Amino acid sequence: MPGTWDAIVVGSGFGGAVAGARLAERGLRVLILERGPWWGPAAEERLRERRRAFPRGPAGIRKLVRGVHVARGSRGLDLTLHADGLYELHVFERLTCAVASGVGGGSLVYTNMQVEPEAGFFDAFPPEITAAELRPHFDAVRAMLRPRPVPAPPAKARAFERALAAAGLGEATYPDLAVAFGEPPASAASTSTAAPGHAGTCIAGCEDGSKATLDRTYVPLAERHGAQVRALCAVRAIGRDPGGGYAVRVEDLAEGTTSLARAPRLVLAAGTLGTLRLLLAARDRHRTLPGLPAALGRGFTPNGDMAAVVHRAADAVESGAGPSICAYRAAHDDAGRHRQLVAEVGLPLAALPLPRLARRRLSRSLVLFGMGRDRVASDVRLDARGRLRTAAGRGDDAPLFDEIATTMGAIGKSYRPRRTLVHAPFRPGSASLVSVHPLGGAAIASGPERGVVDHTGQVFGHPGLYVADGSLYPAAPGLPPSMTIAALAERIATFAAADPDPRTRQQRSSR
Amino acid sequence: MTAAAVTDQPPAPTAAASEHPPLAGASFAQLAAVFAALPHPAEAPRGELRGRAVALAGVQRLPGPARRALARALAALIAPVWRGKRIEAGGGTNLWLPPRLPFARFVPRRAEDGALLLDYDVPENPGPLRGVVGELRPLAPGLQLGRMDLAVAGRRRTVLWFTLGD
């Protein structure tokens, strides 16, 4: 029957691409639905109407923004500027989130850091999941993305080291980066033969092929095993299929048509905000899955994200050269557990349509980006119009954000810049936050009274319905979350594929 | 054609997914057949849901192409005026114009056969409206197909088919 699959995966980021590839590899007929287009050089062989060049130049830069969603107080706005845009902004009461859209999801614009949490972080997970138990799944991600530290630190990383030393803050940590440093292709599974270059445009899309993004690694693996990947196809709603399993309503943004797809397994990996919107709408608005756990929407966290701008450092930084992030400084609590980090972020100068003079001046400027194990644990809900709302803000864990701000201020000052804007783009004491790592809300837990999904990623009481993205975090890691999401998706796929026919249990659970 | 291009085809629309715009311009008889094949909803939707007129009474006797063209034109005219419905636990209302002004209240209730009815026989409504009864059935996840009947001289006549959802 047309539109019927063994598994439907919503989203193609670190959760969806990984789960889709592994399910297809195990012989399932998989459909991967992605609301954004194929981007950049990896898309050259795709259908013209479903691929886009990265937003560059005075005309192309408009596609940098997909849309803006505002839900503050009595105000609400849903503005889609370009359905094929790269970034989407969600403006909540005291939190603004920036998320990506495209085949490959967040990997298209992230800073390449592949960081494993320390073993103690998994104490917040169900007992079946430990660092040791996850080891083969982290190794599988490593085998695909081949991350390693930058072999020759560029000028901006050396400047960061000097700033840390001047501030008395110890040494820099060089994390593993999913970047091919002079050895194409980017991964064992990659189809790319592009030469690497590290033009410093990681956060605006990498054109030189050096990033091991998911559209070059896991997604081609999924396709080689028969998965269908449909770009510019947005899932509008989910529900039960009267014939068993689940149905999703899909809008083809390129053609303006809608269709249904059905499967006994539905894997939601639309990014935290996308997945929460689909689940909350199914429970509270469309009422297609009214029995979803009461814990849905609880425990949302911005991952302690915070930014500062260091404007025109005294010495050369060469902000736009090299991977966007090469190094960070980590801080630990009294018990030796990771608490927060501050990373140096180069500006994507090669991607911006700037005059040469501005580019030269900005090459001495950079961003410091912080993450921390916040205790925000806010609620996310839908309002009457179906807009996501949350009251998460800096005041939910002021000590942590103040600590990150202090660290960033000290590091920034050590660059001897003209100005350091701590807590950019807000005032230093503002209660607002900006996050590129919205996490939680569909927490993994040992029971439905505490969370939304069990240790296999399956939603409590909903056989065959899985969550495989950042929304299943039970707490903020204070680290880049992508590698853990990918490892968990590897694990989730093993359970989802092993279930011979979830519809049998679905019939039992709906009785 | 490359293998990648072959796999990047849009999903084939299925019969059950024949929503608007394919529903727009369908005849009352065609819509009634689609409606009859749909199950009763297990739960009523909640919140403010976008409404779209699909077919109206008064043009049903026109030949197919003329009926379809006129129905689409009327639906386009109605779109900025009738915005949809707000449905809450104990009642609901229609929403009008960009400020989403509430007018024409109803009470959702279950019929004996399980149908989800929108009963306009509430004291706040002007007399002529109190004879209106709507019914919703799930066309697809997050999308309902609705029928609006009006009691005229003791007989119920369908005056509007619409969709409701995101």
Structural notes for this entry:
Helices cover 22% and strands 23% of the residues of chain A. Chain A has helices at 16-25, 57-60, 131-145, 155-166, 218-224, 271-285, 356-362, 398-414, 482-498, 502-510; strands at residues 7-10, 30-33, 38-39, 51-52, 65-72, 75-80, 87-91, 95-100, 228-230, 233-240, 246-252, 257-263, 265-268, 298-301, 306-311, 328-332, 338-345, 366-372, 380-382, 388-390, 419-422, 433-435, 439-441, 465-467. In chain A, the strands form seven sheets. Chain A has a five-stranded parallel β-sheet, with helices on one face. Chain A is globular. Chain B has one domain. Helices cover 18% and strands 39% of the residues of chain B. Chain B is built from three helices and eight strands, in the order ααβαβββββββ. The longest helix of chain B is centred in the middle third of the chain and has 15 residues, at 64-78. Chain B is globular and about 40 Å long. The N and C termini of chain B lie far apart (36 Å). Mean pLDDT of chain B is 85; it is low at 1-21. The chains are: A alpha/beta (511), B alpha+beta (166). Chains A and B meet through β9, β10, β11, β12 and α6 of A and α1 and β1 of B.
Number of helices of chain B: 3
Globally, the shape of chain B reads: globular
Number of domains of chain B: 1
> Structural class of the helices, strands and pairings of chain A?
alpha/beta
C-alpha Rg of chain B (nearest Å)? 17 Å
- Helix proportion range of chain A: 10-25%
**Order of helices and strands of chain B, N to C?**
HHEHEEEEEEE
Distance between the termini of chain A: 26 Å
Largest Cβ-defined interface: A-B, 46 and 33 residues
Largest sheet of chain A: 5 strands, parallel
- Residue-averaged pLDDT of chain B: 85
- How much helicity do the residues of chain B have? 10-25%
- Residue share in β-strands of chain A: 15-25%
Low-confidence stretches of chain B: 1-21
- Coarse structural class of chain B: alpha+beta
Unreliable spans of chain A are 184-196
Count of runs of 4 or more consecutive helical residues of chain A: 10
